[in-house]
Write a structure and sequence with these properties.
single chain, alpha+beta, Immunoglobulin-like, Heat Shock Protein 90, 3 domains, 5-stranded mixed β-sheet, 18 strands, 20% strand
Length: 617
C-alpha cells in the first residue's frame, strides 16, 4: 500500500508540473518559473545534449530561486510551451535579473542557443533584463532549457512570459521610473555640490560622493549601466570590482556621518569609526587577492554600516540635533534593505508587491539628508548669531570694564598729577624764596659799597637773579608748569629794571605766543641783558622807546628786542659780559640764530626751533 501511494503521488505531481504551459493571446503575463522544472549541475560538466536525456529534473513551485553567491554549480531550468490555437503566437521570455553573469537559452527542437547575462550583452539589446523571443506555430509544443550560472554576483532566478505589447509597455514604464529616480538623485547631488563650492563645508562633498556612489551602484544593480552606459569590456571590469562599488558609498557615508555629527565630541566612538574607515580599503585590497577570503571582502563594509546605525542612535540619545535626520534616513534605508533581502531570498516579491520601493526609499533618504544639511546651515546661522550676540555682550562688558579701569587709572593719575603739581609749586616757591634771599643779601652788600662801578656790577647780578626768580614765581602761581605766559614774565622783568635805573623809557610789547618753561629761562635772561643795556647805554636824555616782540611762525620762535637809542660800536661791545651771555645762551642753549643791527638804535633778532627739547643748565 505504501508503494502504491508513493507512485500515485508521483503520478499526480508529474501530471501537474510536467504538463505543458498553454499560451494564448489572452495570456498577457505569466510567472514561468513556478511551472518549470530545475536541475542543479554541481559538476558543471553537463552540456545541452546530456541535459536533454536527463530525467533528474525536479518540479518547482517557487516564483523566485535565490542561491546567493554560488560559483560552483549551474542551474538548469526546463519548461514546455504549447500553442493550442490555430495561429502562430509570439511571446517574450524575461529572465528578471540583470546581474546573473551567464545565461544560455536552448530550443530543444532546433538545438539553437542564445547567450545572455552580464558577460553576454548584445549591442542591440534595449531591455534592462535579458529576454528571449519565442514563436510557436499553431498546435505546436516546444520544450525550452535555460542554463544559469553566476560566479561573481548572487545567483537569483526569476522567469516571466509576456506578450509583446505588454512587455515593452512594462519596459518603457520601468525605464521611465528609473530615469526619474536617477534624475532626482543627480539633481540632489549637483545641488549639494554647489552648496559645497559656496560653503566649503566638507560634509557636503562627502554627501555628494555618497550619492554618486549610490547612483553608480544602482545603475549596475538595475541593469541600466550595462545596456546604456558601459560596453561589454567595462561591464566585466565593473563586475570584478563589485565589492568596491558597494563599499564606496558606505565609506563616504561614514565620512559624512563623522563630519556631520561632529563625532569628535564622542572620543571613544570616534576612534572606532576612524578604525573602520581605515579598515575598509585594507580589507578590500587584501581579501580581493585571495579566493578563500573573497566571500568575506564586504565584512568591513557591513561592520561600518552597522556601526554607523549604532553611532547615529547613540548621537540621538545624546540630543544631537543632526542625528534625528540621519536616524530617519537610516530607517528608510533599512526598510529598503529588508525588502531587498526578502526579495533576494524569495520570501517577498519586491517587484510585484512593492515596485520601486528601493528607489523611493533612496530618494526620500537623499531628500531627508539634504534637508538635514540645509537645517545645519540654518543652525550654523543661529549659532553664528548667538556667537555674535555673545561677542557683542562680551565687548560691551569688556568696554565697560576698560572704561572703569581707565576711570580708576585716570583718577589715580589725576591725584598723582595734583600731588606732583603741588610739589612743583612748593619747589618753585622755595627756589623763588631762596633767590629772593640771595637778592636781599646782595642788596645789603650793595648798600655798603661806595664805588659806583661795583654797585652797578652788583645791581646787574641782582637783576639776573631776579629774572630767574620771577620765572619760578610765575610757575608757583599758575597751574600749568609746562608753558609760561611770556607777556607776564617779560613785563615783571622790565618793571624791575625800570625801578633799578629810574628812567622814562617807554616799553612796547608785542607778545603773540607762550614759551615752554625750559626756553623761558634763557629768553628771560636774554631780555634782561638786552633791555638792561638799552637802559644803561642807549639814551643820554633818559627818554626813549624799547620794543619787545615774540611770535611763532610754523615751528619757529622769533624774539626781537630793539630800541631807538644811539646804537653802539661793535668793537666797544665785544668785551661786554652781557652781550657775551646773550650770544652764549642763544647759540649754545637755544641753538638759535642771532642777528644784530645798529643803524637806528639797536635791534637784536633771535630765531630758534620751537619744537626742540632743551635741557636747563
Amino acid at each position: 500500500m505504501g508503494i502504491v501511494k508513493i507512485l500515485l503521488l508521483l503520478f499526480i505531481s508529474i501530471s501537474i508540473y510536467a504538463k505543458p504551459i498553454v499560451i494564448s493571446d489572452k495570456n498577457h503575463f505569466l510567472d514561468l518559473l513556478s511551472h518549470s522544472q530545475i536541475f542543479i549541475d554541481e559538476s558543471k560538466s553537463l552540456n545541452f545534449s546530456s541535459i536533454k536525456k536527463l530525467s533528474a529534473f525536479q518540479d518547482n513551485s517557487e516564483k523566485l530561486l535565490a542561491f546567493g553567491y554560488s560559483p560552483n554549480f549551474n542551474v538548469w531550468i526546463k519548461f514546455t510551451l504549447k500553442n493550442e490555437s490555430d495561429r502562430s503566437i509570439q511571446k517574450i521570455i524575461e529572465y528578471a535579473n540583470s546581474l546573473t553573469t551567464d545565461i544560455e537559452f536552448y530550443n530543444s527542437k532546433t538545438d539553437n542557443v542564445t547567450y545572455a547575462g552580464l558577460y553576454h550583452i548584445n549591442s542591440d539589446r534595449k531591455t534592462i533584463n535579458p529576454s528571449f523571443i519565442v514563436q510557436l506555430k499553431p498546435q505546436e509544443s516546444v520544450t525550452y532549457y535555460i542554463k544559469a550560472s553566476s560566479h561573481i554576483t548572487s545567483l537569483i532566478i526569476k522567469l516571466h512570459i509576456w506578450d509583446m505589447n505588454n512587455f515593452y509597455t512594462k519596459e518603457i514604464k520601468h525605464q521611465f521610473f528609473l530615469a526619474l529616480f536617477f534624475g532626482a538623485m543627480f539633481v540632489i547631488s549637483i545641488y549639494n555640490l554647489f552648496i559645497y563650492f559656496f560653503t566649503k563645508d566638507i560634509s557636503y562633498l562627502y554627501y555628494v560622493l555618497y550619492i554618486f556612489g549610490m547612483i553608480t551602484h544602482h545603475l549596475l544593480y538595475v541593469g541600466i549601466a550595462q545596456i546604456s552606459i558601459l560596453n561589454q569590456y567595462f561591464t566585466s571590469i565593473m563586475v570584478q570590482f563589485a565589492s568596491i562599488i558597494v563599499a564606496f558609498p558606505i565609506f563616504f557615508l561614514g565620512l559624512f556621518t563623522k563630519t556631520f555629527l561632529q563625532t569628535n565630541q564622542y572620543p571613544k566612538s570616534n576612534k572606532i569609526l576612524n578604525f573602520l574607515l581605515v579598515l575598509i580599503p585594507i580589507t578590500l585590497i587584501l581579501f580581493s587577492t585571495s579566493d578563500f577570503f573573497n566571500k568575506y571582502r564586504n565584512i568591513a563594509t557591513i561592520a561600518l554600516l552597522v556601526y554607523l546605525i549604532y553611532l547615529t542612535i547613540y548621537a540621538t540619545l545624546k540630543k544631537n540635533r543632526q542625528a534625528y535626520f540621519i536616524l530617519f534616513g537610516w530607517f528608510l534605508i533599512l526598510i529598503a534593505g529588508i525588502i531587498m533581502f526578502l526579495s533576494s531570498t524569495g520570501i517577498l516579491n519586491m517587484h510585484l508587491n512593492f515596485p520601486y520601493i528601493v528607489e523611493i526609499a533612496f530618494v526620500l533618504e537623499a531628500v531627508v539628508l539634504s534637508i538635514a544639511l540645509a537645517d545645519r546651515i540654518n543652525q550654523l546661522q543661529i549659532d553664528k548669531q548667538e556667537a555674535n550676540q555673545q561677542l557683542i555682550t562680551q565687548q560691551e562688558n569688556e568696554k565697560q570694564r576698560l572704561e572703569t579701569q581707565v576711570q580708576n587709572k585716570t583718577s589715580d593719575l589725576k591725584i598723582a598729577l595734583d600731588e606732583k603739581g603741588l610739589l612743583l609749586k612748593e619747589l618753585n616757591h622755595r627756589v623763588k624764596n631762596n633767590m629772593q634771599m640771595i637778592v636781599s643779601l646782595i642788596n645789603l652788600q650793595t648798600d655798603s659799597l661806595e664805588d659806583k662801578k661795583t654797585q652797578e656790577v652788583f645791581n646787574t647780578a641782582q637783576n639776573r637773579i631776579k629774572a630767574m626768580s620771577h620765572l619760578h614765581e610765575l610757575l608757583y602761581k599758575q597751574d600749568n608748569v609746562s608753558n609760561i605766559n611770556a607777556y607776564d614774565y617779560f613785563s615783571i622783568l622790565i618793571e624791575e629794571l625800570k625801578y633799578s635805573y629810574e628812567n622814562n623809557i617807554n616799553i612796547n610789547y608785542s607778545i603773540e605766543t607762550q614759551l615752554p618753561m625750559e626756553q623761558a629761562v634763557y629768553c628771560g635772561i636774554i631780555v634782561n641783558e638786552l633791555v638792561s643795556n638799552s637802559f644803561k647805554y642807549a639814551f643820554n636824555q633818559k627818554v626813549g622807546n624799547v620794543s619787545i616782540s615774540l611770535k611763532k611762525e610754523n615751528h619757529l620762535h622769533q624774539l626781537c628786542v630793539s630800541d631807538d637809542g644811539m646804537g653802539y660800536k661793535k668793537k666797544e661791545a665785544c668785551n661786554s659780559l652781557g652781550l657775551i651771555l646773550v650770544e652764549t645762551l642763544a647759540l649754545k642753549q637755544l641753538k638759535a640764530t642771532i642777528e644784530t643791527s645798529s643803524l637806528k638804535g639797536v635791534k637784536v633778532v633771535i630765531t630758534w626751533d620751537a619744537s626742540q627739547k632743551l635741557e636747563l643748565f
